[in-house]
Structures are given as structure tokens and as C-alpha cells.
Design goal:
- The complex is a heterotrimer of chains A (151), B (320) and C (503).
- In chain A, 74% of the residues lie in helices and 0% in strands.
- Chain A has 151 residues and is mainly α.
- Chain A is flat and about 60 Å long.
- Chain B has a 6-stranded mixed sheet, sandwiched between helices.
- Chain B has 320 residues and is an alpha/beta fold.
- In chain B, 60% of the residues are buried.
- Chain B has 2 domains: 189 residues, D-Maltodextrin-Binding Protein, domain 2 (3-Layer(aba) Sandwich), CATH 3.40.190; 99 residues, D-Maltodextrin-Binding Protein, domain 2.
- The longest helix of chain B has 22 residues.
- In chain B, 41% of the residues lie in helices and 20% in strands.
- The radius of gyration of chain B is 22 Å and the shape is globular.
- Chain C is an all-alpha fold and 503 residues long.
- Chain C has one domain.
- Classes of the chains: A mainly alpha (151), B alpha/beta (320), C mainly alpha (503).
- Chains in contact: A-B, A-C, B-C.
- At the B-C interface, α2, β2, α3, β7 and α7 of B face α4, β1, α16 and α21 of C.
Chain lengths: 151, 320, 503
């Protein structure tokens, strides 16, 4: 594995730290940014040190993400992202949860897609899951879940 | 033809409107409290809404949702910008807190963002010292503060809340400067600072101070109200009796409001039922047991009170 | 021994029914992601309106003790800590559950909770007046140093290197400042409207621990998504007992640190588990095993967070000062029945106060019994295929983080932080120090500001923050803690270099 990824990651964190530092020292009123100033200095030093170590110490420049890993998790992450950031409010909590559940389950379930039995099983699991969630959050805890087009 | 259609539409709309108000409420209602669970506002909100499900009240339960943070700003910001004006989303207000915060700026609400429904309580601020403190009256405190300008530390529950207003009024009336120490985490943290001796004095809620005095931890020197509190603290003088020109502007009024844009029919219905709900004998019993002063006001009275506080606070906070 | 005479009030039919109901309900609520003990107790307050004072408090006491322990269930099985108290439990618990040792992990967690819990309540019974003095000794400067001490623990928590741990902690400290400044009310670092309410701890906790887990399950892909744990070990109870006895060092450290830290108003409950975990690791000869599924990690963390339950009520019951959010809610439960806690509580209302405390003793035992009963069953969660587990954890994370404050903003923050954490973990950072920073940031900041204001009016900043025996003691511990972490890392690096044969 190359050392590029850890260096890139450390670089991004350092940029974030510099941004935090810059905001802390430039915004007013100063009293409200006293504590952010304290920590942002430590933040920049530590981030700089971490970046430097990826160049100095070979073992500090390990870790990263392989192409295969991305290929595997991308479909799931995309579906989850649409569910959380978009569908949950637009369609309603329970509707979007049901759809997301079935889609993710089907994406990663190794059972063959072309059998009716597979799909019946998936639907049954999804229904059970929804029933438990409804009981727990809406009936017992009285959570007002967002309503969209549906519930 | 067009006119007929328009007429039908109008009639339908009117029907739907009345039906909505008639059927309201048909599902549970949410009451947002902008302080944490266990705080005085939360605790009282839970008591005054406990009979909401009764047939002679709203007929549906009210569930409390806490959105604490930054002296109430987080919750009220959410209420002004995101809450739905459908009558199912209510909030508790604290006067003078949210008015003072809106005058100070940096928030997205003002008194015009909300419609009051009714007021349930009024908790005056009191001036307290630890049980072993050398101070035994406001005179002692002011005399010490005059000799040691800026050295008298006293705690309160944050900036631009009732306690802070009382602090500003005391300093202005006596012409002294003292060191106000705002705490995070409401009145309980401010009380702890006094009992533990972290600060020399403090401003706190009457209800909490009454309990702390019962427990033998503090002395209460004065109450920032126009009259003495006959129910809980008949022996404690007002600030005015102590010679300080401090009125009732810091009294913490608590009540229920809805966001601007809620239909008039719903507001009227709530404004008629909610004050009755507060007067329920079980509610009054529980409030008295907890040492929480009750002060029920209807919508018109609350509207007038908001106006008056807004004008006064603009004057007081002008120089800050 | 006065409390013994009031045990009769607990063993009545209605009281026992409430105790059992409260315990089972508390375990379920505690295991629900997003539902902290504070919220669980607040939810039960309306029920107590209908009950007699003593019964209402028995219900609340039982629920408090069992929700704290119930949090261990989701922490171990799903890697979702139900509350800050359970963070340390996830570190080793989830690793054990993954290897099919969920039953063992849960049994140890409940037994350790029982031991810690009983000792904690015993302290409450016997030492309350002494402990109250100690709780008040912590003013703003001491709390500030205590928070800093917590931050220095960060470096050694679950990461490969101290620097990366401290950097994660810094990210957490920074995240804690996002949103409204708590005292001045100024908005800081709000670059998206979802952040205007700040980053609440519980949604952040769910996101940082659960979401990387979900993505990791996705990353295994469709082909390998068959059953992960080949088999779930059965684990006889007697072996769990023996194991707990043989690891008594972790029990002692957990219980002692939990009781001491639980006392301190405003900070205790949230970090007791993490501090105990860190201490147990530092003195253990098997310290390298921590974080890889080592039973001592679970034992220390769980005994600590139940040991803190009793002492956390000391400031409330003696001084009427709620030392934790949960204690604040319990205060409400007392007040509606007209009971004012204070030094004379046990003289004025012995018929309420003693049964309440006794019910917490019985509650600990019931909690342990029910917990052990479901442990082997619950451990079978590890057999659920990943294709089902991933969407379940995702759904629980979404519902759980929403239900805390009914806020979609919290859900977005949860998901965004969680995704970020997945990538950070790939580069050797870890979630525990980040969360510790997030929890301690506001405590450090507000006490720093209060302390500065007081110092300005009185003795000056240096004398205020560096004066007094307790301050100096805390500073010494901070220095020792940092020094030890650096020394341990240097030694480990030297050992690593020697193995590789390179300088």
C-alpha cells in the first residue's frame, strides 16, 4: 500500500485545523472564541506532527482504502445516503425505512434474486423489522416521526 | 360557471377550516421545552400538561420534547424556523429570557415570531448567599461591593436570562459594579456554586432557593419582585424594601406558545382550554408540593406583558 | 443500619411488581440506541404522578439502575453505546461478541455491574455525609483540571499511537464548540443550518460508533456476507462467576474509580467508564489485549458505570444539588410528592428515602438476574447475517438519533460524523478519544470561563488555577498520565524497531 493515502488524509486534517485556527483568531467577539483558540493551536500542532510522521516513520504511513473495498461498500453507502439525507423527510420515516431496508438487504443478501422464496423471506424480515421499530419508537416512546408524502 | 366553481371552492374551504378546528386536536401534541430534562421549566411543564388527556381539557396527551442549549436559544431558534404551525407543535416560553436574547441579537426569533397561548407560572429571582456568609442583608452586600468594586462574585444561570436581568438591575440601582458569573446548566449549577462557596453570592429561582433554604444550605436576602412572596417566603423583603429600585422585570414567566402562522381557530381553541387546564386542582396541588409559584394569565394578558417587557428590556440593554 | 428496618416496605406486592416492571422496562429502554438513562427516567415521571411517593421513587430507582446496565447490551452486541457511560464497554465487548463470545461478555458485564452497583449504593447508605463534603470540593478550577485529565487519558484510548489519539481528541474538542456558545450565545463554526443547534452527544455517539460498523459490513460485499461468527459459544454461569473472581483487579479498579468519579457533580457519570477502563489497562500485565476483546475491559467499564449510580445521588440527597442530568430528573420525582431533599431528608421522610435506596439495592440484583437470563439468548444476535444486520443497525441509528430531540439535523450530523469516522478509522484514528473530547470540551470550556471570571475579581488567574492542594494534585496526575503515555509509546516503538532490526 502506498503512503499517499495517509499523507492525503493527514493533509486534509491539517487544512481543517488551520481553518479552525484561522476562524478562532479572526472572528469576534473574542471572548466567545477564547477556548477555540486554545484548542485550535493544539489541533494544528498535532495535525502537523501527524503529517510529518507519515514522511519520517514508515509505519505511521499505513492504512487506507483499496479499490475493492470501495466497490463493495459504495452501493450500500449510496442507498443509505439517499435514505438518510433525502428520503426520510420526503417520504416519511417508516416508508423510507422500509424501502431502504429491503434495498440494502437485497444488495447484500447472497440468496439468488430470481426465486420467489427469497423475496418472500426478505419481505417478511422487513415487515417484522418495521413492526418492532413502530412498537418501540411510536407506541412505547411516543416519538413523533417526520411525516412526508406517507408516514 | 367560473363564479359557481369559485363559490363552491370558497364554501368547501370554509367547511374544511371549521372542521379542522372542530376536530382539533385528534392526535398527541408535542410541547418543546428549550431546557434540559429535570430543570425547573421542564419539571413544571410536565406537571401543568399532565391532565391534557382529560375529556374536559384537550382530550389528547401532550408529550414533552427537550431541546436544550445556549440558555434556550437552540430550542427557540428551532421553534421559530422549523416547527410546523399546525397546532400540534407547542413550546414553553420563558420571559424575559427569549425577549432579552432577541434584543441582544444573534438569534432568528423575536417576540413577533410566536403567539402566546397562556401563562402558568411566575418565578421571581432572589438574591442568595451561603449559610455561613457574613452578609445578612442587601445593605451588607452593597456596602461591601462599594468598598471593593468589581470584586464581589455572584452566580446566575447564564447571560440574558432572568437572573442576569436582575443582576443588571441591582448593579444599576445601587450604582456598584460586581462580577456576575454565568454558569452553564441552569439554576442548579448556579446554586451549587453558592453552596460550595465558589462564589460569594448568587441569584436564583425563588422555588429552588426556597428548597435550598429549607435544607439549611443558604440564606435568602431579597426577592426581585414588587410584593413579598406570601406563600413561600413571607419573611424575605423585596429589593425595594431594601432600598434598591428593582422592579419585577426579572420575574421568570413561564407559559405555552405556538409559532406564528398557526390558524386563528386553533389559537382561540387553545387559548380557551389551556388556562382552565392549568387551574385543574390536581395540577395546582402538585405545583404547590414542588414549591413552584403558579400565576395563570390568559392570552390577552400575556400579549400585554410581552409588549411591556420588550419595551423595558430594550431600554435596559441599550448600553450593553 | 437504619436502612434494614425499611426493607419491609420494598417487599410488598405493589412495590415488588413496580420493581420488576421498572427493571425489565429499564433494561429494554437502556438497550435502545439513543435512549439515555436520563430520558428513560424522564419518560417514567408521568407514571409516578399516579403513584404514592414511595412507589413512584421505587419505580424511578429501579429504572435508573437497570437502564445504565441495559446500555451494555447494545454496546456489546451492536457496537452502539446507548449512553456515554457505555462507550468503554463497546471497545472490548463488541470484539468478544464478534468472536461468538457474546454470552460471556454479557454475563461478565451484568455481574460486574452488580458488584459495582451494590458497592456504590452501599457507599450512598453509609458514607453520605462524608462524601457530600468531597463532592463540594470541586469548584470551577478543579473541574477544569479534571476535564483536562480526561483529555490526557484520550491519548491512550484504543489508538495505535498517542499522537493520533490526541489528535482525535482535538477533533472532538473542536466539534464540541460547534453551535451556540453556551454562555455568551454566539454562533461558532456553523457552516450548515443543521449545526446551529450544536452537536448533541448522543446522536454523535451513535453515528461515530454504529455507522463505521455499518459501512464495514457493506465493505465485506455480497459474496462473503454469510454468517460471520461460526458458532455462538454457550457459556455456563458458573464460569462467568469464576472468571469475575479471577479478574478481581479489574473489578476493584472499576468500582473504586466509578464511585469516586460518580460523586463529582456535573462530570462523573459520563466519563466514569472510560476512566476506569484506562486505569485498568495501565496496571494490567495484559495491557496489549485491551481493545481486542479482553474481558477485563468490560469488567472495569461496567463495574464503574454502575458503581457511579449510588454516589451520583449523594449531592442530590444531602444538598439538593442534582449532580447529574438523571439526578435532576429524580429530583423532579421527589418534588411532585412534596419531598425536599436536604441534610434532614432521612429524618423527615425516612419512609420514602430508605425504601428508595433499598429498592436500588434490590433493583441491582433483579437487573443482574434478568440480564443473565437473556444474555445467552441475546448473544445469538451475532448469528444474524450481515445483510440483515447492516440495515437494522442503520435504521436503529436513524430512529435513535432522531428520537433524542426530534431533530432531523441530529440525524444528518449523526450520518455525516459516522461516515467521516469510517475513513478516519482506516488511518488508525479511533472513535473513543474523539467522543471523550466531545463530552469534556463543554465541561472544560465553561469551567475555564467561570474560573477566569472569578479569578479576575479575586486572586488572579494563576493563583486561582494553580493554587490549592486539590488543583496541584490533579495537575500532578495530568503530568504523570501524559508522561506515562509517552513513555509507553517510546518503549513500544523501541521494541518494535528492535524486532525489525532497524534503528
Amino acid at each position: 500500500m502506498t503512503a499517499l493515502q495517509p499523507r492525503l488524509a493527514s493533509g486534509i486534517i491539517l487544512l481543517l485545523a488551520i481553518w479552525v485556527c484561522w476562524i478562532s483568531f479572526s472572528q469576534i467577539p473574542a471572548e466567545a472564541f477564547l477556548f477555540p483558540r486554545l484548542i485550535s493551536v493544539a489541533f494544528v500542532i498535532l495535525a502537523g506532527w501527524t503529517l510529518a510522521r507519515t514522511f519520517l516513520d514508515r509505519r505511521a504511513a499505513e492504512g487506507g482504502i483499496t479499490r475493492e473495498l470501495v466497490k463493495n461498500f459504495l452501493p450500500g453507502v449510496v442507498v443509505a445516503g439517499i435514505y438518510v439525507f433525502f428520503a426520510a423527510k420526503w417520504l416519511g420515516f417508516y416508508t423510507s425505512s422500509a424501502i431502504a431496508f429491503i434495498v440494502i438487504l437485497s444488495l447484500f443478501d447472497p440468496a439468488p434474486h430470481n426465486q420467489v422464496r427469497t423475496w418472500l423471506k426478505r419481505l417478511a424480515i422487513a415487515a417484522g423489522y418495521l413492526a418492532v421499530m413502530y412498537l418501540l419508537f411510536s407506541v412505547v416512546l411516543k416519538v413523533f416521526t417526520p411525516r412526508g408524502l406517507f408516514i | 360557471m367560473k363564479q359557481v366553481l369559485a363559490g363552491i371552492a370558497l364554501v368547501l374551504a370554509a367547511l374544511v377550516g371549521t372542521v379542522e378546528a372542530d376536530e382539533y386536536p385528534d392526535r398527541p401534541i408535542m410541547l418543546m421545552v428549550s431546557y434540559g430534562a429535570g430543570g425547573a421549566t421542564d419539571f413544571q411543564a410536565r406537571i401543568v400538561t399532565m391532565t391534557a388527556g382529560n375529556e374536559d381539557a384537550l382530550g389528547v396527551p401532550i408529550a414533552i420534547i427537550n431541546k436544550p442549549g445556549a440558555g434556550g436559544r437552540v430550542g427557540w431558534n428551532w421553534f421559530a424556523t422549523e416547527a410546523e404551525a399546525d397546532g400540534y407543535t407547542l413550546a414553553a416560553y420563558n420571559i424575559p429570557h427569549f425577549v432579552a436574547q432577541s434584543i441582544k441579537g444573534g438569534v432568528e426569533y423575536s417576540k413577533d415570531s410566536f403567539e402566546p397561548i397562556a401563562n402558568w407560572g411566575a418565578d421571581p429571582a432572589v438574591f442568595i448567599v451561603g449559610k455561613d456568609s457574613p452578609f445578612s442583608s442587601m445593605m451588607d452586600v452593597i456596602a461591601w461591593a462599594e468598598e471593593n468594586p468589581g470584586k464581589l462574585t455572584f452566580s446566575g444561570a447564564g447571560l440574558f436570562v432572568g437572573h442576569h436581568i436582575a443582576a443588571l438591575q441591582i448593579e444599576k440601582a445601587a450604582g456598584v459594579t460586581m462580577q456576575y458569573v454565568p454558569t452553564k446548566g441552569g439554576g442548579a449549577a448556579a446554586m451549587k456554586a453558592v453552596i460550595a462557596g465558589d462564589v460569594m453570592a448568587g441569584i436564583n429561582n425563588l422555588s429552588d432557593a426556597y428548597r435550598a433554604r429549607e435544607a439549611g444550605n443558604i440564606k435568602i436576602l431579597a426577592v426581585a419582585d414588587i410584593q413579598r412572596n406570601e406563600e413561600f417566603l413571607p419573611d424575605v423583603p423585596t429589593m425595594m424594601e431594601e432600598g434598591l429600585d428593582v422592579d419585577n422585570s426579572s420575574v421568570n414567566f413561564r407559559g405555552i406558545m405556538v409559532p406564528k402562522g398557526t390558524s386563528d381557530a386553533i389559537i382561540e381553541k387553545l387559548a380557551a382550554i389551556v388556562p382552565e387546564m392549568f387551574m385543574n386542582s390536581r395540577v395546582l396541588g402538585k405545583m404547590a408540593a414542588g414549591g413552584s409559584p403558579v400565576h395563570v394569565m390568559n392570552r390577552e394578558e400575556v400579549l400585554a406583558m410581552w409588549e411591556e417587557r420588550d419595551a423595558y428590556l430594550r431600554e435596559l440593554l441599550k448600553d450593553l | 443500619m437504619e436502612f434494614l428496618t425499611y426493607f419491609g416496605d420494598v417487599f410488598t406486592v405493589p412495590a415488588m411488581l413496580l420493581l420488576i416492571g421498572g427493571t425489565i422496562g429499564g433494561l429494554i429502554l437502556g438497550a435502545t440506541p439513543g435512549l439515555s438513562p436520563t430520558m428513560a427516567v424522564a419518560l417514567l415521571i408521568p407514571f409516578t404522578f399516579q403513584l404514592e411517593a414511595v412507589h413512584g421513587l421505587i419505580l424511578l430507582g429501579a429504572a435508573y439502575t437497570s437502564t445504565v446496565a441495559g446500555g451494555a447490551v447494545s454496546a456489546i452486541l451492536l457496537k452502539i453505546p446507548g449512553a456515554p457511560a457505555n462507550i468503554a464497554t463497546t471497545l472490548d465487548g463488541y470484539e468478544m461478541a464478534r468472536r461468538g463470545q457474546g454470552a460471556r461478555a454479557l454475563q461478565l458485564a451484568f455481574l460486574a455491574s452488580l458488584v459495582g452497583g451494590l458497592i456504590g449504593v452501599a457507599l450512598l447508605i453509609f458514607l453520605t455525609p462524608v462524601l457530600a463534603e468531597w463532592a463540594l470540593a470541586f469548584g470551577p478550577s478543579e473541574l477544569f483540571w479534571l476535564a483536562i485529565l480526561g483529555v490526557t487519558i484520550i491519548g491512550s484510548l484504543g489508538t495505535s499511537s498517542v499522537v493520533k489519539g490526541l489528535l482525535s481528541g482535538c477533533i472532538g474538542l473542536w466539534l464540541a464548540t460547534v453551535g451556540f456558545d453556551d454562555i455568551l450565545g454566539v454562533q461558532r463554526f456553523v457552516f450548515h443550518s443543521s449545526l446551529s443547534g450544536g452537536i448533541s452527544i448522543v446522536p454523535a455517539l451513535i453515528g461515530l460508533f454504529a455507522i463505521p460498523q455499518v459501512i464495514a459490513m457493506f465493505a465485506d460485499g455480497r459474496s462473503s456476507s454469510s454468517i460471520e461468527a461460526i458458532s455462538v459459544e454457550r457459556h455456563p454461569l458458573s464460569r462467568a462467576f469464576r472468571e469475575l473472581l479471577s479478574r478481581s483487579r479489574a473489578v476493584v479498579i472499576g468500582t473504586v474509580s466509578g464511585s469516586v468519579i460518580g460523586l463529582i457533580p456535573g462530570i462523573g457519570g459520563q466519563i466514569a467508564g472510560l476512566v476506569a477502563y484506562d486505569q485498568a489497562r495501565k496496571v494490567s500485565p495484559e495491557r496489549d489485549k485491551f481493545g481486542t476483546g479482553h474481558p477485563e475491559g468490560i469488567i472495569a467499564a461496567e463495574s464503574a458505570n454502575n458503581a457511579m449510580v449510588g454516589p451520583s445521588l449523594v449531592p442530590l440527597l444531602t444538598l439538593s444539588i442534582p449532580g447529574s442530568p438523571t439526578a435532576a430528573v429524580l429530583l423532579g420525582g421527589l418534588l411532585i410528592h412534596g419531598i425536599f431533599p436536604g441534610t434532614d431528608l432521612f429524618d423527615n421522610h425516612p419512609h420514602v428515602a430508605w425504601p428508595f435506596i433499598n429498592s436500588m439495592l434490590i433493583g441491582q440484583i433483579l437487573m443482574c438476574v434478568f440480564g443473565l437470563y437473556v444474555a445467552s439468548l441475546a448473544a445469538r444476535v451475532a448469528l444474524v447475517p450481515k445483510s440483515i444486520m447492516a440495515p437494522i443497525v442503520l435504521g436503529l441509528a436513524v430512529f435513535g438519533s432522531y428520537s433524542v430531540q426530534h431533530s432531523m439535523g441530529d440525524v444528518y450530523v449523526m450520518a455525516a460524523l459516522g461516515t467521516m469516522m469510517y475513513f478516519l478509522e482506516r488511518f488508525g484514528f479511533s472513535a473513543a478519544p474523539l467522543v471523550l473530547g466531545l463530552i469534556l470540551g463543554p465541561i472544560a470550556e465553561s469551567n475555564f470561563i467561570q474560573g477566569s471570571l472569578i479569578a479576575e475579581a479575586t486572586v488572579g488567574s494563576f493563583a486561582y488555577f494553580f493554587g490549592g492542594a486539590l488543583n496541584l494534585l490533579l495537575i500532578a496526575i495530568v503530568v504523570a498520565s501524559v508522561g506515562y503515555s509517552l513513555y509507553a509509546e517510546l518503549r513500544a516503538r523501541r521494541a518494535g524497531n528492535a524486532e525489525r532490526g532497524t534503528p
